[in-house]
Specification:
Layout: H1 5-11, E1 13-17, H2 22-35, E2 64-65, H3 71-77, H4 80-90, E3 95-97, E4 102-105, E5 133-138, E6 149-151, H5 153-157, H6 159-165, E7 183-185, E8 191-196, E9 201-203, E10 212-216, E11 219-221, H7 227-239, H8 255-259, H9 267-273
Antiparallel strand pairs: 1-8, 2-4, 3-11, 4-10, 5-8, 5-10, 6-7, 6-9
Helix pairs in contact: 2-3
């Protein structure tokens, strides 16, 4: 897997073809449509107001889909080329995959407009500045203006100097963009876009005629010594639980918990979750066999009707 590390270091992001098969991309797209009770042929269904507001105000109206554990999403998370991309960026294969949601950003229309935003998900007032990676898998072609990823590479490139020039009471999560251009980054269906968490970024307005679909997906070095986090990850996968926190309001219908299927994992997927060891750690037999555990039904579709 070829990753342009020089571009990533200079600009704070990189786009890499994931080489995920079209059938798996189709499954993820279908899962989003069905979970959201959306009809691809009826745009009137694309604009339902979420039943819960997001704790991060800028994410309200941004099309966040509180779907985390559909087998189609786990299939892309454990795809080898996705792991290879993050391994190249982190310079280690011993990684855990994020448990994150999806995005469905419909075109703006008169009574439903989203203007986009730029923010950081990390606190940029912390010293030293933290390092992390975020990413998403593009599930639709997303040229500029189609509600996809936007960012500010020039601010990222001079972040230390910019922070030193700012007032002490600045917002550490929302930058003042005076003097900086926001760049709209186009992606193709199947592209994996990864960015440094220090890059100011966000979702752009969709002025096209089609919705933007994406699956948020990232990886970070495994932390087997953090038993609490590891236990939470395994329990979340096994029982299809959403993350907790202001940015994750969850699904009030509890659709995944009540009707979903716990995804089967490949040997790579077991390591990416934390069930199995990367480097001599003790494997976890909690999901052996899957079908003996709560919520696992062999051969069940993504959602029961």
């Amino acid at each position: 897997m070829s990753v342009d590390l020089d571009f990533f270091r200079a600009n704070g992001y990189v786009v890499v073809p994931s080489r995920i098969p079209e059938a798996l991309l189709d499954d993820a797209v279908d899962a989003i449509w069905k979970f959201g009770e959306l009809d691809p042929d009826d745009p009137q269904t694309w604009y339902r107001t979420p039943k819960r507001t997001n704790g991060l105000p800028e994410l309200n109206g941004a099309g966040m889909v509180e779907l985390y554990h559909h087998p189609a999403l786990w299939a892309t998370r454990q795809w080898p080329d996705v792991h290879a991309t993050f391994s190249a960026l982190w310079q280690t294969e011993a990684l855990w995959v994020s448990i994150d949601r999806c995005n469905f950003n419909p075109p703006n229309r008169g009574d439903a407009t989203f203007e986009g935003f730029i923010h950081w998900d990390i606190d940029t007032s912390v010293k030293p500045l933290p390092f992390g990676m975020q990413g998403f898998l593009s599930l639709s072609d997303c040229p500029a203006g189609s509600g996809g990823f936007q960012c500010v590479p020039a601010l990222y490139a001079q972040l230390d100097e910019w922070i030193a020039s700012q007032p002490t009471d600045r917002d550490p999560f929302r930058p003042d963009l005076a003097g900086f251009d926001v760049v709209d980054v186009p992606t193709r269906r199947g592209d994996l876009l990864v960015w440094n968490s220090l890059l100011p970024h966000g979702t752009s307005a969709n002025t096209s005629s089609a919705p933007r679909l994406a699956q948020y997906l990232s990886m970070a070095p495994a932390r087997p010594e953090d038993a609490a986090t590891r236990d939470w990850r395994i329990d979340a996968w096994l029982h299809r639980k959403a993350p907790e926190g202001d940015a994750f309001p969850g699904d009030p219908r509890r659709w995944e918990r009540l009707h979903g299927t716990t995804a089967a994992l490949t040997p790579l997927g077991r390591k990416l979750l934390g069930l199995d060891a990367w480097q001599g750690e003790i494997a976890d037999d909690r999901a052996e066999p899957y079908d003996a555990k709560e919520g696992r039904r062999r051969g069940a579709p993504g959602f029961a009707r």
